[in-house]
Amino acid sequence: MSAADAPAAAPHVELRRVSKRYGAVTVIADLSLAVEKGSFTALLGPSGCGKSTLLRMIAGLEEITAGQCFIGGVDVTETPPAKRRVSMVFQSYALYPHMTVRENIAFSLSIAGASRKVQNARALEVAHILQLEALLDRRPAELSGGQRQRVAIGRALVREPEVFLFDEPLSNLDAKLRVQMRVELAKLHASLKTTMIYVTHDQIEAMTLADRIVVLDRGNIAQVGSPLGLYNHPANKFVAAFIGSPGMNFFEVKLDRVEAGVAQVAAPGGGATRARLRAGAAEGPLELGVRPEHLSILPIERADAPLKGKIAIVEHLGNATLVHVDTPAGLLVVEAKGDLAAAQGAQVALALDETQTHLFGADGAAL
Amino acid sequence: MGARESASVTSMLRSRRAERLTAAALMAPFALVYGVLFVYPTLKMVELAFTNAPLIGPGAWVGFDNFRRLATDRLFSTAFWNTLYFVVLTVAPSTLLGLIVALGVNRLKGWLQSVVLAAFFLPYILPVSCVFHMWNWMFDKDFGVAQYILAPLNGGQHVSVFRTTPYFLPAVAFITIWWLLGFNVLLFIAGLRNISRDLYEAAELDGASRWTQFRRITWPLIWPVTVLVFTIQLILQFKIFDQVYLFANFIVRYDPSMVMVEYIFKEAFQQNKGGLAAAAAVILFALIMIISVLQYQLLRARGQK
Amino acid sequence: MSAGAQSLRARVDAPAARRLTRLRRIDRIGLLITIGTLALAILWAFPLYWAIITTFKHEYETVKPGLRLWPEEFTFENYAQVLTHTKIGIWYINSLITSTAVTVLVIIMAAGAGYAISQLEFPGRRFFWWMILASFMVPIPALIVTHYIVLSQLKLINTLAGVVGPQLIAPVTVIIYKQFFDSVPKDFREAAVIDGANDWQLLFRIYLPMNWGITTALAIITFIGAWNLFLWPFLAVSSEDKMNITVGITQVHDAFGVHYARDLAVAMLAALPVAVVYLLFQRRVTQAIMLSAGIKG
C-alpha cells in the first residue's frame, strides 16, 4: 500500500494483508482493509464470501493465519478478544437463558469483578438508552425478538467499547421489525458516534445504514466505497449486480468504435447505443449494464430505439411498475412510473439513459 | 512462514498454554481416579489371569494354565451354563413384557398413568437386599404367601423354592424380572411417545385393526428401543451376582446354582486363587463384549432391512 | 325420500355402520387392555405392599395360616426392635456418608472432565475420550478382584474410603455431561469470551447453570445407585461397623434366628430413603434413566 492510498487520518481499525487458512483451504488471501473512526462500515456479500470470518478476526474469535490487525493504532493480532475493547452483537443474540436481562447486560462487568452497585447502575443506564427498563427482571425466553435484539445491543453497549461489531443482527427478525430496528441502529450510531462494523448479506441494510460499504466476493474485496458511490460507479460486474434492487440488467454488446471516451456499441437485435468508457480502451467481448430505472418504455414505432421486445410480465408495486420485457438481449427489467399503462404481450421499444450505462469486460471489471 | 505468520503462531501458543493448564486442572482428579481404579486394575486383571497368584501377593507366570484349568473345571462350566441359562430366562422375557406393559401404560392418562408407572418402577429403586428379604418371605417354605399358588401345583405339598435346584434359577429369574421391569417399561414408553399419533389415526381411517397397527407401525418404529433394551438387559444379566448369591446363601451346597461372577468371587475370596479368578473375569469380559457387539449388530441389521 | 336417494344412503350407511361396530369392538378391546394393565400393576405392587404390611404385624401373626391383607393388630414393635437391637443407625450413617461422597465426587469430576473434553484443546484429549468409552465395556464386577488388590495395597480395605473408591468410575456421567456441553451453541461461549470470561467462569457461570437440570438428575441417580450397591461394599468391608445399609440388612437374620417381620422391617428401612427420593423427584429420576440409556444406545 503506497502512501498515496493511505487515508488522511489514521484508520481506527485496520487489517493488513490478512489471510485465513483452514488447513489446506484458503478462505481469505492477502486482504487489506481500513475503517475510519466513528464510521459505520458494512461488510457486504453473499454467504461464503468471508465477511463473518473477517469480522471474527477483528473480534479475535478467529486466528489470523497471516497478517496483522490494528485497533486504534495498536497491533492486536495476538491480543485475546476480551482485551481488544470490542463488543459484538451475534446473529442469534446469544443471551444467557438462565440470567435476567439485567444480569445479561451486566455480565461483562461481573466477570471483571465490578460491585453489584456498579453493575446495576450501568445496566440501568444502558436499559434507559434502549428503552428496556421495564424488562430488566425478565428472562430472555419471555421477550420478543426485537426486545432480545435490544438486550444483545445493551450487553455490547455496557462495555463502552471502541468498536462495535455486528454479525447479521437483523436476519432473525421479521420484515417489519427489521425496518424498525434499522432505524434504531442508525439512531444509535448517530448518538454514540462509535465506530461500527456491520456484517450483512442484505444490500438494503448496507445501503441504508452504512457510510462505507466493503463488498466481498469469495474472500476478496470487490469494491470499497460509499453507498451511492457503489451504486452509481460499480468497479466490476459483481458489485453492479449485487447492489440495487431490482438488479441491474446485463446484455452482451459488440464494439463498433471508440470516440473520445465514449464507446459506440451494437446491442443484440441491431440497435445502436453509446456507453461511457472510463478506461479509455476496450476490447474483447463486452457486457453492458443498465439499471431498470434507467430504461424507459417507448412506443414500438420508434425506429431509433436500441432495443425492441415484447412485454412478458407487468408487476404493479404502486409507487413503481416493473415491466419484464423479452428482447433479443434477454429478459430485461424496466422500472417505470406507478401509473404506467402496459399490457402484457404488447410490442414495445426500450430506450436507455446513455449516461448511466456501464461497460464490463471479459474479466468483469468496469471499463 | 513469514514473520507475520509466526507472530500469530506465538499468540496461538500462548493462549494454548492457558487452555492446557485449565484442562489439566479439570482432568487431573479424573485422570488419577481412572488410572488407579480402572486402567491399572484392568491391566492387572489381564496380567493376573496368566499367573497363579493368590488374592493378595505375587505369583509366578503360568501362561495359559489358568484358562486350561477353567476349560476342564466342572464348577466353572456349571457357572458358565447357569449364567447363559439365567440370561435366556430374563433378557427376552423382560424385554417383551416391558414392551407389552408400556403399550398398556401409554394408553392411560394423567395421575393414573403416574401411579401405574410408579407401581412398575418402584421395585427398580429398591436395593437388592431389600428385594431379597421381600421375596424370601414371599416364597418362604412354611409361611410364604406364594405357597397358596405353589402348593396346589405340587400335589398339596409346600415347595422349598430355593433349596430345590431346578427351581432356583427360574425363581431368581422371575424375581429379577419383577425387580427390573420398570426400567424397560420406562424406555419403551419414551420410545412409544416418539411415534407420532398421526400415523395411528391415518391407519385407523384406512381400516387397520389394532393388531395390524401394532405389527406395521409400532413394532418397526419401536425396534431401535427394543434392541437397546435387549442389549442393556443382556449386558446386565451376564454380570448377575447379588440376588443369586443372597438367595443361595441358605443352601449348604449352592454350587449347582452358581453363576459366573459368583465363581469369580468364590475363587478369589474363598479359595484365595487370585490368578484363576482373574482368568474367569477375563473370560466373562470377553464374553460380554463379543455377545453384545454381535447381537447389537445383528439386530440392528435386521431392523434396517 | 326417493328410491335412488334411499339406496345411496344405504350404500353410504352400510360401511359406516360396519366401522361403527368395529369402533365399538375396538373400544371393548381397549377397555380390556386398560383393565389388564391395571390388574398387572396391582399384581406388581403386591409384593411390596405385602412386605410393608407384614412389618406392621406381630411376629406370631405372620406365621398364622390364612391370608390377612391387613394386620389384626397394627404394631410398630418390629421397627422398634430393629432400631434398638441392630446397628442400623451406623449403617444409615455409613450409607449416607459413602453415597453423598460418591455423588459429590462423581458430579464434580464428571462435570470437570466433561467440560474439558467438550470445550478445551489439549494433548491426550482423544485418548481420554476413548478410555471413557472403553471403560463402559468393561464390566465392573469383573474387576472386583483387582479392585480388592489395589485397595488393600492402599490399606483401604474395611474403610469407608475404600467403599467409595471404585464407585467413582462413572463413564456414563462424563459422557452425558460432555454431550450436553457440546450442545451449548458456540455463540454463548464466544459472547462470554468477548466479555472477558476465562474457562473457569465459563464452566461455573454459563455451562453448568444452563444445565442444572442435568446435574440434579445425575446427582439423584448416582446417589440412589451408590445407596443400593451391594457387591463391592460387601467385599470391601468385613466389620459390621463399616457396612452400608444394603449390606448390613443381609447380616441381620442369622444372629437371631428367623424373624420374618423384623427382617422385613429392616429391609423396608433400608429402602425408605431411596424410595422417598424417587417419589419426590420422579421426573428427574426418569429423565436421568433415559439419558443414561440413550448413551448406551
In short:
Chain A has helices at residues 51-59, 101-105, 107-111, 116-129, 145-157, 175-192, 203-209, 227-232, 237-242, and strands spanning 13-22, 25-35, 40-44, 66-71, 74-75, 86-89, 163-167, 195-200, 212-217, 220-225, 249-259, 262-266, 272-276, 286-290, 295-299, 307-316, 320-327, 330-337, 347-352, 357-360.
Notes on the structure:
The complex is a heterotrimer of chains A (367), B (305) and C (297). Chain A is of the alpha+beta class and 367 residues long. Helices cover 23% and strands 35% of the residues of chain A. Chain A is built from nine helices and 20 strands. In chain A, the strands form four sheets. A six-stranded mixed β-sheet of chain A has the order 6-7-8-3-9-10, sandwiched between helices. The model of chain A is unreliable at 1-7 (pLDDT under 50). The radius of gyration of chain B is 26 Å and the shape is globular. Chain C has two domains: 3-55; 79-296, MetI-like (MetI-like fold). Helix content of chain C is 75%, strand content 0%. The interface between B and C is large, with 96 and 95 residues.
Secondary structure: elements and pairs:
The complex is a heterotrimer of chains A (367), B (305) and C (297).
Chain A (H helix, E strand, L loop, with lengths): L12 E10 L2 E11 L4 E5 L6 H9 L6 E6 L2 E2 L10 E4 L11 H5 L1 H5 L4 H14 L15 H13 L5 E5 L7 H18 L2 E6 L2 H7 L2 E6 L2 E6 L1 H6 L4 H6 L6 E11 L2 E5 L5 E5 L9 E5 L4 E5 L7 E10 L3 E8 L2 E8 L9 E6 L4 E4 L7
Parallel strand pairs in A: 3-8, 3-9, 6-7, 7-8
Antiparallel strand pairs in A: 1-2, 1-4, 4-5, 9-10, 11-12, 11-14, 12-13, 14-20, 15-19, 16-17, 16-19, 17-18
Chain B lengths: L2 H47 L15 H8 L1 H33 L3 H16 L2 H11 L8 H7 L11 H29 L3 H9 L4 H29 L3 H7 L11 H11 L3 H31 L1
Chain C lengths: L2 H53 L3 H4 L14 H9 L2 H32 L5 H13 L6 H10 L6 H5 L6 H12 L3 H9 L4 H9 L4 H17 L2 H6 L8 H4 L4 H4 L3 H21 L1 H15 L1
Helix pairs in contact in C: 1-15, 3-15, 4-8, 4-11, 5-8, 8-16, 11-15, 11-16
What radius of gyration of chain B results from the CA coordinates? 26 Å
* Quaternary structure annotation: heterotrimer
Mean of residue pLDDT of chain C? Answer: 84
Q: What global shape of chain C is seen?
A: flat
User: What percentage of amino acids of chain C are in beta strands?
Assistant: under 5%
Reading off the top of the CATH hierarchy, the class of chain B is best stated as Mainly Alpha
Residue share in β-strands of chain B: under 5%
CATH architecture of chain B: Orthogonal Bundle
Query: What's the gyration radius of chain C in Å?
Result: 28 Å
